[in-house]
Design goal:
The protein has 7 helices and 7 strands; from the N terminus they run βββαββααααααββ. The chain is α+β, with helices and mostly antiparallel strands. It has 2 domains: 55 residues, no CATH class; 200 residues, no CATH class. A hairpin with a 2-residue loop joins β2 and β3. It is rod-shaped, with a radius of gyration of 36 Å.
Length: 311
């Protein structure tokens, strides 16, 4: 928009594009009324230009925030996948050790079904080396669980805890236990989860009434339970986010299904092991005769004989 001098007089014109061509459009003479109209048109154009610029800035900020959210979702999901791989790898090692241990005393199974003992193998006892391997794997499972519990809390949980909210539900408390290493709430959450895992182990493999096979399987089941809740908390975090990431939620739901199925299989494995008549050491005494070397004698009984309904 500008002024043109024609025959000594000033007139307002503006350039407009029509049909791919630019032409001048007459607005009026440069009198006070036309000047006010031109100033209003220019002010309106400046305002619209500022709004477009602000909208562009907001659009870029929203796109950047969305990219950051997707990147954070991928990172957190990668952590879940990595931990799932660790838990799954541990489960495979446990499975191999159980198959080898039970196979050494005559137990076989078909297509991961129930265990059957071969004839003539009754009364066979696990070798000490087999028992040591089962105990070692159980301790390894405890270390994996502590590593899972000791991860840092996410920012949203730390903010909730620092604000002093006392109405945290069970899901948030579990997530706090899974991720926090600080004192206070995080310490309490960590202790609560460890106590819950110990309760699961004791329920599945009661002390003084379980074989090393059952204790190892119970440890694996407790670790699988912990991973299930880890995936659940990640999924809850996605659903509660300000911007819902459907792709991430779908991937986490698939991981949750896999973790839940693995947990259910581990419970079934414990139940099948509890039905076996495995020998278990229930007492040990030191015996020495005059002039002879001291030896250890262990009292061995079938675990099923100590349980209600056992033979």
């Amino acid at each position: 928009m500008g002024l043109k001098v024609i025959h000594g007089r000033m007139y307002y014109y503006e350039s407009v594009r029509e049909g791919g061509r630019v032409r001048s459009r007459y607005l009026g003479p440069a009198d006070p009324v036309t000047t006010l109209m031109v100033e209003a048109i220019q002010a309106g154009r400046r305002e619209r230009r500022e709004r477009r610029r602000a909208a562009e800035v907001d659009r870029k900020a929203e796109a950047r925030a969305w990219r950051d959210m997707e990147a954070e979702g991928r990172r957190r999901r990668a952590e879940v996948v990595e931990r799932g791989g660790v838990v799954g790898g541990y489960g495979e090692k446990v499975e191999a050790a159980i198959v080898a241990a039970l196979g050494s005393i005559g137990y076989r199974r078909h297509n991961r079904g129930g265990w059957r003992r071969a004839r003539g193998m009754a009364g066979s006892v696990l070798e000490r080396s087999r028992v040591r391997e089962l105990v070692r794997l159980a301790k390894e499972g405890d270390r994996l669980a502590k590593a899972e519990i000791s991860e840092r809390a996410p920012y949203w949980l730390r903010e909730t805890v620092c604000e002093g909210h006392g109405d945290l539900d069970e899901d948030v408390m579990i997530d706090g236990a899974l991720r926090s290493t600080s004192d206070g709430y995080g310490r309490l959450h960590k202790d609560a989860i460890e106590a819950r895992m110990e309760e699961i182990r004791r329920r599945l493999a009661p002390p003084f009434d379980s074989t090393p096979v059952e204790e190892l399987l119970a440890t694996r089941a407790a670790l699988n339970w912990l991973h299930v809740h880890r995936v659940e908390q990640e999924l809850i975090h996605v659903w509660n986010a300000q911007a819902f990431d459907a792709k991430n939620a779908t991937a986490l739901e698939r991981l949750l299904s896999q973790a839940s199925a693995r947990y259910e299989r581990s419970l079934l494995a414990v139940a099948r092991a509890r039905k076996l008549s495995l020998a278990v050491v229930i007492g040990q005494v030191n015996v020495a005769q005059a002039g002879s070397q001291q030896v250890n004698q262990a009292k061995v009984e079938a675990a099923s004989a100590c349980r209600p309904g056992g033979p």
